[in-house]
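Technical annex B. To support the medicinal chemistry partners, we prepared a structural model of the target in complex with nicotinamide-adenine-dinucleotide, based solely on the information shown next.
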Amino acid sequence: MKTILVAGGAGYIGSHMVALLVEKGYDVVVVDNLCTGHWQAVRGAKLRVGDVRDAAFLDRVFTDDPIDGVINFAAYSLVGESVTDPLKYYGNNLAGAQSMLTAMKNHKVNKIVFSSTAATYGEPEKQPIEETDRTDPTNPYGASKLAIEGMLKWCDRAYGIRYAALRYFNAAGSNTAVGIGEDHSPETHLIPLVLKTALGQQAHIGIFGDDYPTADGTCIRDYIHVRDLAEAHLLALEYLDRGGESGPFNLGSGDGFSVKEIIDTARKVTGKPIPAKVEPRRAGDPSILIASNQKARQVLGWVPHRGLEEIISDAWTWHQSHPQGYGK
Ligand code: NAD
Ligand code: UDP
């Protein structure tokens, strides 16, 4: 494997993937339409600006470079928006994946690592969540990702395209050496919003509900460093290259932290007071989501190395040095 195609490589997680591949000596071709990504985030790779749903464009990309494997991050991923505009999500996420798989079939590329999500589980039946647990998404975003996992399964059987569907829990952190980080607009994720509050860009951080059945009443999530995530993708690609069996893999730390614990850790890391106010629950938030990462550890040999303080500290370095994201 020498040349890797990264779709959505100008986005948050994708750009960290590109940085790791470049560091490891791979040739990287990024395909991105920059709808939420940033050209400035792509370092050391060839950027081809275009839409994965554009079959003729993808055909040129696969013709111009000898692609050995694909990592597909390209998607829309705002849960709330997916509820009000489900067709936008099926239209981009599902159609984009279908178009990518078609190009792979036509060009005889037989490995894909795909960005799935913990949102495929919906309300979990138990904690920590295992890959074999029930999948029953509670929003169209999660449903679109689960539908793609189904498409991947059938494409494996029919065309021999092997896949790893990586179900991420909560990605956060940055790559301080390369100088890339999280820049979503609008930003909806907890850690960047807490740090924007520390920077004084908003008056307080809203805590969405403190009456959940958890120790301090706030929701518990499993936060995973974006660099640990990127390392898992590379291991998954190598696993598929060795002939490993297709399937889903949870990517989380295996530890859960409440919203209040995140804010307290951010206060400690930044030395800022970070005002917080309890607000109503956000619709559709499960109270606890914690990954079992046993399968990724055992099958891929993945070990997440970076804990919560390092996640928040790296994110803080990024937000302090880029208060307006890639805009400045
Ligand atoms: P992001 O929005 O920063 O990155 C997505 C990238 O894909 C962007 O650069 C965007 O411009 C590009 N893109 C979207 N549609 C495209 C299209 N049709 N053609 C070409 N490019 C297109 O998102 P992210 O936070 O980096 O997430 C990456 C992936 O991981 C997504 O698939 C998301 O659903 C999944 N995911 C993210 C998280 C998280 O915590 N951030 C958690 C679970 C799953
Ligand atoms: N959250 C919050 N305030 C915010 C943003 C998020 O209390 O301003 C909570 C949210 O309800 C969830 C957790 O923080 O319990 C993580 O939310 P995020 O949007 O970062 O990720 P999600 O788990 O929804 O994918």
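Notes passed to the chemistry partners:
Residues 8, 10-14, 31-37, 51-53, 73-75, 77, 92, 96, 115, 117, 168, 170-171, 184 surround nicotinamide-adenine-dinucleotide (ligand 1) (CB under 6 Å).
The longest strand covers residues 111-117.
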